[in-house]
Amino acid sequence: MHMRFLYRVLLGCAAFLPMVNTAMAQEAMTIDQKVNETFATFTGPFVSLIFAPLPGTSFPWIVLWLVVAATIFTLYFGFVQVRYFTHAISLVKGDYSDPHDAGEVSHFQALATALSGTVGLGNIAGVAVAVGIGGPGATFWMILAGLMGMASKFTECTLGVKYRNEYADGTVSGGPMYYMSKGFKELGLPGGKFLAVLFSIFCILGALGGGNMFQANQAHAQISGIVGDYPGWITGLVFAFVVYIVIVGGVKSIARVTEKVVPFMGILYVGAALVILLVNYDQIGWAFGQIFAGAFTGLGVAGGFVGALIQGFKRAAFSNEAGVGSAAIAHSAVRTKEPITEGFVSLLEPFIDTVVICTMTALVITISGQLIVDPATNLYSLNEAGNAIATIDGNSGVALTSAAFGSSISWFPYVLAIAVILFAFSTMISWSYYGLKAWTYLFGEGKKTEVVFKLIFCVFVVIGAAANLGPVIDFSDAAIFAMAVVNITALYFMMSIVRKELASYSARLKSGEIVKFKH
Amino acid sequence: MTTKLVIGLDGHGSGDRAVEYASGLAKLIGDCELLIVYVVEWSPYSFQTPEENAERHKRREEEITKAHERVVDPAVEKLVQDGHKARGIVRHGDVANTLNDVCVEENAQQIVVGRSSEGGFTKRLFGSSTVNLVLHASVPVTVIG
């Protein structure tokens, strides 16, 4: 019933578009420009603060912050991402799940939900941005960041489950704001509440930025790439309407359809990338060569190898959100007697997201020859502005990935467009929930306060679709990294708690107290 | 030793006939316990939104209560009134597998179910729960038309 109504509305909008396109283009451009200008001035100072370079270098301090954290967690937990990798897979398969708990959220479901919030544009557009600016070498740093980030994810998700709130009616709320306030209190440390409030503010901004505006923006770029250029605010309104009926109207059927289609789109995307790689198997070795060579020499990209490194780390963090704290919100829904099991499961996330999917995208872009190489020097040529590698049609972001896939499978850009729209939508739904949890932490649980946030969320869909990519991507990155600043600070204080859990669990696993269930 | 019979119900008409049949059978057996089992179809591999996950425990409790109120408890009550020893069990999972699991756990000797209530496309594609149960059960299955 609802679906039929939605189709009718969408069809209506589609028929309306060409008219709006011609008649209102002139006026609409000015609306888009105005939105863009206001937005850029408003967010500028925040963005500059987060991305301020270390004194005397061009290296943003925030990138170092993430890398150092992932390295410390990796060492502190003795390479937990390697030692417990297969155990994590057993947990997801349900080997350790008590059959009597059937009907509760399974490890698989928590992982799938968290993944549908992270797999998406970061893997398609983000990687293209990284490779377009930092060259194939950025991929190396991205993979490294993904592997290390697994330890950060493990830490935050274990704490997320351990300190979540369980309400009398059986619902749960969890996430960094809860482990900050409760965990610090338990440790006898001051400032937990302050960190929790700060995190919640940044989480709301992150939800509106990377979890919303960036998605709306790239979805619009995809649609206008197919039907022709038209004002962004129109896509924004349509998207905002659909998001509205799902999160405010409670039309679960749409969300459910998306949740089911998204994994298939993900598999289709990886499948297509594999086909392209298999067809060009003779170039895979060369592509990896480019990735390794570029990682340390830069191969002529803007900013040299440091440029590749910064881009790689930045886009990996944006894509898999390790250390950001968002996954801790998603994973805390699992009812397990062992919070650490959810930590193990969550460490698969950066692996699937970054090490597998992002690498596929990067390889396809590298092999496709979309990045222009100067035949004289064998180095990458820069574009006119000198800030990115020149591409065949001057593409960047999603358009670059689309062109790279299109050069091998001509019809794939259409599938990709649908995938991008669906990914964008599912990411928005996930982040609307993350943002909402931060919002209710600040303003209290309750129907009215929830609706206020949801309405703000819908307004930002329109702004995101209308603004240019530059300011949107800057703000999105800045907000998400600001979450990481607060979250990782708390993780440093609380990592000893996770280590105790890990020691106890591994001892019981060895002694045979924790065993697989017969299914 | 008490004989145990598992009666699988899905809230449809054929279930009443299954209960009646099992009641008759129990009278013939004599020392017999009847287990009314309702399985809420659920897969740990389905995809859910974060909000659905957060509410899952609450929904599960509601599903269990509803199944007891609407299907299991009235059937158990009727059997007890008829002088039988009867118990109700509600579980989540794949219908055929879970009915069989309960049967194994409880050491039951037979499963009685109503004819399949699914039809059309789903049945053609995946086969009905009844057919799956008959094919994979560890004990004899009686299907009531």
Topology, element by element:
The complex is a heterodimer of chains A (519) and B (145).
Chain A: H1 2-50, H2 61-76, H3 80-83, H4 85-93, H5 107-118, H6 121-134, H7 137-162, E1 165-166, E2 172-173, H8 176-187, H9 192-227, H10 232-247, H11 252-279, H12 281-297, H13 304-320, H14 326-331, H15 339-346, H16 348-368, E3 373-374, E4 379-380, H17 398-406, H18 412-443, H19 447-466, H20 469-511
Antiparallel strand pairs in A: 1-2, 3-4
Chain B: E1 3-9, H1 13-29, E2 32-41, H2 50-81, E3 85-93, H3 95-106, E4 110-114, H4 120-126, H5 129-136, E5 141-144
Parallel strand pairs in B: 1-2, 1-4, 2-3, 4-5
Helix pairs in contact in B: 3-5
Structure characterization notes:
The complex is a heterodimer of chains A (519) and B (145). Helices cover 76% and strands 2% of the residues of chain A. Chain A has 519 residues and is an all-alpha fold. In chain A, the strands form 2 sheets. Chain A has a two-stranded antiparallel ribbon. In chain A, 54% of the residues are buried. Mean pLDDT of chain A is 85; it is low at 1-23. By secondary structure, chain B is an alpha/beta fold. Chain B has a single domain (3-144), classed as HUPs (Rossmann fold). Chain B is 52% helix and 24% strand. Chain B contains 5 helices and 5 strands, in the order E-H-E-H-E-H-E-H-H-E. A 5-stranded parallel β-sheet of chain B has the order 3-2-1-4-5, sandwiched between helices. In chain B, helix 3 crosses helix 5 (129-136). The two termini of chain B are 30 Å apart. In chain B, 38% of the residues are buried. At the A-B interface, helix 5, strand 2, helix 11 and helix 18 of A face helix 2 and strand 3 of B.
